[in-house]
Design goal:
This protein is of the alpha/beta class. It is built from twelve helices and 23 strands. A hairpin with a 5-residue loop joins strand 17 and strand 18. The longest helix has 14 residues. The structure holds manganese (II) ion. This is Serine/threonine phosphatase.
Length: 413
């Protein structure tokens, strides 16, 4: 990869491990002081042992905070532990390379470093900088000379981070094409229904927990309704495994059109290419999960353990879409899933779906509100912060469940 030529402002993920790479005299500390808070900066000079620095940065990332590391990073072997640590904590590793003019470096290090040693370090860093991507750094910014002092830093929140939204919310489980039940549920929740225009009760927002389509009778109609709600700000939606598969199909990828996807695709065919394009753009924009209400509420289709809340990694995405799969298949050919909720000890309430039960299933601080509407169960909403569920029964059995829906579990009194 060629390093990104830096514009006037570099954009960093709001949650990341940022390695400030540069030789002595390149101005890493001054750069850190200009753009980051003292609590975000981890300077090797301030730690007796490399292990202490490593542990401090690990704790910062575990807490979901940005960490900026100033440590020897001239050689790939010195950088490797930092990209590995970022990966371990499901955050992006970013390198910012400060490449100062030779004359400036020599003046700043005249008393601390021989000219030969300085030149050796500069050439080693420049020689290996092109490999930063291969080393696991997802972004690498190369700032040269005067650019180092001039450049601005902008933090870009992750797509999953909607801590700024405080609700109240109406979270809605797997709809799977059950348009009539969805309209009825929204009406019960107090939404004013006019065609595809839904006006929420004052201040409320609907949150769809994914799996909008397949199995039920009108997947295209559900998409139209939900897309209209999202566009108007009446709703947010996270991605489910069925939504992800539909997106792959619409993107021309080879997928097996089973579990109702064939019917959905036929409905979208009939709806025409313009609508299909809108559906594709909508699905591409869906976050894999959402952190809401200052971090107190998580919406994720397949659930999400605490260490993956707010993380944008492939591992977090995969868990949120598919749940805690073991990789094995049961006697009916269905993926075996672990009961992640039983081991959940996080503080936020996690609302999810994905695994249908006859009634909502409360386990600790989690609630599964997939009540199998397409299988003839019910469509369920969770009102938050009220923590009340509301269900409307399915009007028909639209698809045969592979086995009877297991019982849910009421909340602890
Ligand atoms: Mn589902």
């Amino acid at each position: 990869m060629t390093l990104t030529a830096a514009p006037d402002v570099i954009e960093l993920p709001a949650l990341a491990l940022v390695l400030l790479a540069g030789v002595p005299g390149s101005g890493r500390r001054a750069f850190a002081a200009r753009h980051f808070t003292p609590g975000e900066v981890f300077d090797a000079h301030a730690f007796q042992e490399p292990a202490d620095l490593h542990a401090a940065v690990a704790a910062q990332l575990a807490a979901g905070e940005l960490a900026v590391v100033i440590a020897p990073a001239t050689r790939p072997a010195e950088r490797a532990p930092w990209s590995a640590l970022a990966r371990e904590h499901d955050v992006k590793a970013v390198a910012v390379l400060l490449d100062e003019e030779r004359a400036v470096l020599e003046a700043r290090t005249a008393n601390s470093l021989s000219r030969e040693e300085l030149i050796a370090q500069v050439s080693e860093l420049r020689r290996t900088a092109g490999g930063l991507r291969a080393e696991g750094f997802r972004q690498a910014w190369h700032l040269r000379g005067a650019q180092i002092a001039r450049v601005g830093v902008r933090r870009v929140p992750l797509r999953v981070d909607r801590r700024d939204l405080h609700g109240p919310f109406d979270l809605i489980g797997d709809v799977h094409g059950c348009l009539n039940e969805l309209r009825e549920l929204l009406a019960c929740l107090g939404y004013a229904v006019q065609g595809d225009t839904m006006t929420p009760p004052a201040g409320r927002t609907a949150i769809f927990l994914g799996d909008l389509t397949d199995r039920g009778p009108d997947s295209a109609g559900v998409l139209r309704l939900v897309m209209t709600m999202v566009a108007s700000g009446a709703a947010l939606c996270v991605m489910g495994n069925h939504d992800e598969k539909l997106l792959r199909a619409l993107s021309g990828k080879a997928v097996k059109a089973m579990h109702g996807l064939d019917v959905t695709l036929a409905q979208l065919d009939a709806a025409g290419p313009a609508f299909q394009g809108q559906v594709r753009a909508f699905l591409e924009g869906l976050p894999a999960h959402l952190v809401l209400d200052g971090g107190q509420l998580i919406a994720a289709h397949g659930g999400l353990p605490a260490h993956l809340h707010g993380r944008g990694s492939g591992r977090a995405r995969s868990f949120a879409l598919y749940g805690d799969t073991t990789g094995a298949y049961d006697e009916l050919g269905l993926p075996v899933r672990r009961d992640w909720a039983a081991g959940y000890a996080g503080a936020p309430l996690v609302a999810y779906g994905h695994t249908p039960h006859a009634t909502p299933r409360w386990v600790g601080n989690t609630v599964n509100i997939d009540t199998g509407c397409a299988f003839g169960g019910a469509l369920t909403a969770l009102r938050y912060p009220e923590r009340e569920t509301l269900s409307v029964p399915a009007r028909a059995v639209y698809a045969q469940p592979p086995r009877p829906l297991p019982p849910g579990q009421p909340p602890l009194a």
